[in-house]
């Protein structure tokens, strides 16, 4: 399909047959807008979503800061464009607001929090018991009330395809569960210069007939249209859309208890560890709805010697003894890093509201990673509220299972 300039999108709306109920929203969008060329005005309007520092970082010498800023710009341009072109599409019932349009509705993560929320930057995040499980670049609701989500990428780094595919798979699975929706269509929006990668890996990324993708200009092309002489960045979008809704106005019917799902998965893991063939089973298949970490249980201080006889615990190159651990810490928690398939130990410092996070290394030891405190509200409260114990035998089996 030829590139469509966003200024001419009204003409495209006259195409018949694309609101067919048999077609998913991503497929309809893809058939209407295979490639979109945003106007200069829209690109400059999208700058309202970027902070002053992000605007400066667009041309930074720091490649990391520059990459983050460019990703935010690309995402903001796509958001503004989708607001404009989808507002008159019959097959779209709602577009979920985000960024500058939603930042006033942001909520801090707290223990026990489940559902979709806005974080401090106005991004859409799914939280489970106060933990951020995933971020959704955009959410749409089609004419039948079905939710679909969107991933926006200005670039796809080398080696990122597998992790992207896993992320899409998880988001489909968790949204299907909490929305009670049989399948969740997915739309991938990428820069034109990444198109060949997507075509090459299409079967891995777009796994269902309801999934599709569209392209935008490269970030370099978008940046070239920024008006650096403008006195101020627009405060509002170019278009007012009644279909643009805040999360709290959309009745998604979300009703799930992530802690309950998590605790059932812990039982599955313990059960698996006690089976004779636990080393031959992929434990990730048993915890498909869990993201980031599984908090297994509290290790009895009396069992520290047994644990240390097999796995050292090292803090700043200092190999800790059992007495040092007991004297300086009053809670030892075993957890699992799902994404990296590694065991973790959290050690609560006595008379302090902080935990030392110790991660498993290749040399069969736990090494200090960082501290977690009340600033990490959801995680900290989860650790504080844990009261289930785990035997040293089960602890060692869990470590063996995921190391």
UniProtKB/TrEMBL annotation:
- Domain of life where this protein originates: Archaea
Full protein name: Uncharacterized protein
Give the species this sequence originates from.
Methanomicrobium antiquum
């Amino acid at each position: 399909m030829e590139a469509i300039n966003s200024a001419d999108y009204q003409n495209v709306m006259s195409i018949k047959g694309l609101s067919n109920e048999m077609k998913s929203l991503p497929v309809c969008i893809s058939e209407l807008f295979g490639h979109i060329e945003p106007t200069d005005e829209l690109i400059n309007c999208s700058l309202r979503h970027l902070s002053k520092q992000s605007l400066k970082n667009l041309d930074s010498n720091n490649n990391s800061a520059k990459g983050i800023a460019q990703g935010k710009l690309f995402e903001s341009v796509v958001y503004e464009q989708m607001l404009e072109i989808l507002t008159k599409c019959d097959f779209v019932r709602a577009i979920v607001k985000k960024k500058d349009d939603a930042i006033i509705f942001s909520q801090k993560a707290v223990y026990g929090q489940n559902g979709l929320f806005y974080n401090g930057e106005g991004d859409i995040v799914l939280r489970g018991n106060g933990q951020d499980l995933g971020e959704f670049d955009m959410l749409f609701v089609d004419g039948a009330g079905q939710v679909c989500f969107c991933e926006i990428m200005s670039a796809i780094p080398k080696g990122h395809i597998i992790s992207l595919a896993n992320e899409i798979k998880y988001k489909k699975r968790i949204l299907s569960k909490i929305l009670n929706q049989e399948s969740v269509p997915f739309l991938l929006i990428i820069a034109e210069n990444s198109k060949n990668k997507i075509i090459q890996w299409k079967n891995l990324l777009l796994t269902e007939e309801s999934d599709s993708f569209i392209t935008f200009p490269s970030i370099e092309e978008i940046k070239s249209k920024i008006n650096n002489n403008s006195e101020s960045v627009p405060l509002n979008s170019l278009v007012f859309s009644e279909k643009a809704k805040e999360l709290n106005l959309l009745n998604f019917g979300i009703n799930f208890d992530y802690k309950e799902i998590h605790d059932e998965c812990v039982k599955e893991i313990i059960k698996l560890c006690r089976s004779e063939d636990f080393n031959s089973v992929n434990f990730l298949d048993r915890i498909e709805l869990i993201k980031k970490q599984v908090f297994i249980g509290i290790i009895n201080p009396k069992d520290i010697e047994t644990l240390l006889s097999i796995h050292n615990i090292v803090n700043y190159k200092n190999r800790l003894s059992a007495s040092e651990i007991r004297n300086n810490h009053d809670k030892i928690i075993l957890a699992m890093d799902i994404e990296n398939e590694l065991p973790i130990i959290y050690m609560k410092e006595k008379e302090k509201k902080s935990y030392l996070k110790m991660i498993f290394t290749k040399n069969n030891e736990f090494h200090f990673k960082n501290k977690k405190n009340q600033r990490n509200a959801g995680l900290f409260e989860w650790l504080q509220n844990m009261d289930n114990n785990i035997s040293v035998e089960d602890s060692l089996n869990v470590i063996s299972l995921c190391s």
